[in-house]
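User: Fold this one for me? It's Lytic transglycosylase domain-containing protein.
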Amino acid sequence: MKLFKKILLVAAAAIILLLGYFVLKRGYTFFMKRAYPLHYTQIVAKEAAANQLDPALVYSVMKAESNFDPNAQSHAGAIGLMQMTPDTFEWVQTKLKSDTKYSNIDLYTPEVNIRYGCKLLSLLFERYSEKATALSAYNAGIGTVNNWLKNPDISKDGAVLEYIPYEETRNYVDAVLKNYVNYRKLYQFNNKGEMIDD
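Assistant: Here's what I get for Lytic transglycosylase domain-containing protein.
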């Protein structure tokens, strides 16, 4: 009888532990999805697919740049969800053939900002083989990063940055890459950039 009671207690403890694990896991996932949300999903899916980008990366950049605030504006004059400067916006418009000519005010429109932000990311990933280098160029500019890559103290091979000289850019790249790890853990996307329900 004592052995039976012990077996029952062990079984009950195991069930309680198992239930606790699932409750904690579900709570953790709920909390993390609140911290790393998906906004503008239809636009992100469309533009990520059109530019052959991982949607998780697009969300990671938006979270780091504006925390999904379409009205965000930086001290450097970058605007909107993906924080594009008017000069960069002008340049990307020459790369993305469109019948519509947009003005700076259009950067506050999520569809426009995400479309051109994704195009910029795509251009940078075509130019730079390393994710951290491309993200550095998104933050500090192509000219700055090209100069870093020419400096043997910063880049031994002209492709990989041994370190990022600007603290702001270093922190930005770290934030985007951390976001990216979390978005990849939390969500799965199909080849159309749409989220796969789990």
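One thing worth pointing out: The chain has a mean pLDDT of 90.
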